Amino acid sequence: VKVMELIMNIEQKYTEFGFEETGEYVDVPVEWEGFYYPAYIPQGMVLTDVLSDTVLYTHSDGTHLWFCDMSDGTTGTIDTENAVVEAVLLNGHAAMISEKDRWVSILWNIDNRVLMVDYTGTREEALQIAESVRMIK
């Protein structure tokens, strides 16, 4: 999928606007029905499952990456008992990071979508994945 961005040129008498290709591409599975998708997937991770709003990537070293793009009205839980929980800004959106044992979960919303990265790697890499999420529809 080609990534587009809104371009605005503000002049004294008018504002010109339109969409322009960024030159960035996101490899999205055909079965994906979500509106957002991460542009960055850690090297060596292989797509192993696709649901309409959730993908699972695995690595031969046992690392897992779940990415979810859920519609409004979605409910769920994240195990935060004895976890380190922090509120942060992620690309200008309020987000929560929960770190427990080897899991890093990042939860945030954009418009009416709830997005989540659930990763068994480092916090830094989980944030890199989350920050790479792009609108594809």
Report on this model:
With 137 residues, the chain is mainly beta. The chain has one helix at 123-131; strands at 2-10, 15-25, 36-38, 46-50, 54-58, 64-71, 84-90, 93-100, 103-110, 113-119, 133-135. The strands form 3 sheets. A 7-stranded antiparallel beta sheet has the order 4-5-6-10-9-8-7, with helices on one face. The longest helix is centred in the last third of the chain and has 9 residues, at 123-131. The mean pLDDT is 90.
Compact description:
This protein is 7% helix and 54% strand. The protein is mostly beta strands.
Strand order in the largest sheet: 4-5-6-10-9-8-7
Q: How do the helices and strands follow one another from N- to C-terminus?
A: EEEEEEEEEEHE
Question: Which bin fits the share of residues in helices?
Answer: under 10%
Distance between the termini: 9 Å
Indicate the structural class.
mainly beta
Low-confidence stretches: none
Task: Report the β-strand fraction as a percent range.
Answer: over 45%
